[in-house]
Structure formats: C-alpha cells, structure tokens
Amino acid sequence: MLKKTLFIETPCHLQIENELIKLTNKITQESNTFVPDELGYIILENYQITASIQFFQIAATNNILIIVCDKTHNPVSYTIPLYYNTTQTQTLNNQIKLKTEHKRMIWKQIIISKIQNQANLLKKMNKDYLKLQKLLEKATLDNIETCESTASRFYWKELFEIKKFKRDSEGEPPNNLLNYGYSILRAATARALIGSGLMPQISLHHHNKYDPLPLADDVMEPYRPFVDQIVVELVKNDDYMFLHKGNKQELLKILACDTIINEVRRPLMIALTYTTSSLANIINNKNKKISVPIMNV
C-alpha cells in the first residue's frame, strides 16, 4: 500500500486518541486525525512540536518513519522501529556473515543500475548519454568503482546547465535541493531495510565510520537519479536557490514518483520494498539477483 507523508512545519502536538494519531495546532487549536496504518513518514520541521510517548510507540508499531529537521530545514535524525520483521534475527545473522565476494557481486548490480538510470535521465533530457552506455559495456567486478566515478564526473557536467556546477554537499545551489531530496530518499531506504529484516548499519560497500546508515547509502544509489530528475525541473525556476516550502513539497514527491521494477510500474516507495526484500533474499540464499529500479525514458 502506498503510504502517506505528513509534513508538519507549525507548532503542533501529536498524541493518540481512539487509536488514531491526533494532530493539534497549538495556535489555532484545530485538530486533525490520521490512521496510523496509512502513514509511512512524518516530517517535523518546527522546534515547538511536541508529542506523547504513546505517539512514538504507535508510530514504531506501524513502521512509521519520523524525520526531525534542523534550523536549516534539513533532516538530521530518524526514528525507526527496532523490531519489525518476524525473521529479523535470522536475516541479521546471515547479513553479518555475508562474504565479501557476494557483497561485491551485489554492489556491481547496484552501480550498473545507478549508471543506467543516470544515462536514462540524460536521454530524457536530450543530452549526451552514450558515454555512460559505453561505460556499462565495460563494467566488471574489478573496475566497477572506476566506472562509477567516471560516470559521475560526466553526468554532473551534463545534467545542469549551470556554469561550473560541482556536486558537493556543502556547495552552491542546487546542492541544497539535492541534499534535501537525498535525505528523504535515505530515510525511506532505511525504513524499507528495517521492514525487510535488515540492519541499515551493516553495509555492502560504504564504510565511513561516521555514517550511521551505510547500507541505506548503498541501496539508495540506483534511486538517486529520480531525485535528480525533480531537481532538474526545480532549477528551471528562478527561486531554486532557496529551500523554501514549495521546493520541499516538490522534493517530497520523490516517494510517489514512477519507477519500473520487476517489469511493473510502481511508486518509488513501493519499489524500495522490492529492492530491500530481494536483498534480504540474497542474504538468506534464496536468490542471486537484486531487484533494481529502472527510470522510464
């Protein structure tokens, strides 16, 4: 089921009433209620938001990801349930024991999918994509990292018609938009991993000791171009320099954008669950191929 996203940027209080999530505006005292099972994400963007402990308990029970933002409106923390999948212990044991050769095999599939989606996006924009296609033809287990870095340099140079644009999380806009979109994608990926019984802290490839969710960073790679696609459209407007409410709302649409996975068109939020469950199946020796999204051209 496609879950809803609740975006809160005014002083409010969250509590449980009659098994529903009740949201009360502290200024107007107006209230709205939401069915917990229908929500997938709650984004909190105001310092005066408060919530009851029962609210957090119900959110965890229903696998609702709560995202807390800082004063710059960028996500800085996520609350995710500790236990959600009934076979989590078995899957975690297998995840810890996963051999390096299997990790490399999965990583190659992930990066090939990422580069293919980058090429598809450039093709949709009527830009040069053939260099990326040629890179894919040469990709092997041994050179996949080189292929990824080569593709990245070419891709960012082609993607935006902004002079000297450089992809850098601390860089000039539209890096701010990319950062926000990737943060939402990362949170959604972590939620899907937990739902499939996987531990987001145990990676396939990313190994930065300061990264709390390296497996989410691994798995989200093929989905990044879907964020890029939204940002490309936002850059056409004069106000793309600012991460205002309108731009954030557009970036939140990433969770519902169309993807093709297992030859079926599905919202990205649902596609992520197919990717993470297929990864769990590989880890549990049930198959050898991870399900990856395809950007429609």
Q: N- to C-terminal separation?
A: 25 Å
Q: What does the main sheet amount to?
A: 4 strands, mixed
Number of helices: 10
Shape: globular
Helix content estimate: 40-55%
The secondary structure category is alpha/beta
What Rg is obtained from the alpha carbons, in whole angstroms? 20 Å
Would you identify the CATH architecture of the largest domain? Up-down Bundle
Instruction: Supply the CATH superfamily name of the largest domain.
Output: CRISPR-associated endonuclease Cas1, C-terminal domain
Strand content: 15-25%
Give the count of structural domains.
2
Low-confidence stretches: none
The overall pLDDT, averaged over residues, is 92
Question: What is the H/E order?
Answer: EEEEEEHEEHHHHHHHHEEH
Give me the side-by-side strand order of the main sheet: 1-5-7-8
Q: Remind me, CATH topology of the largest domain?
A: Four Helix Bundle (Hemerythrin (Met), subunit A)
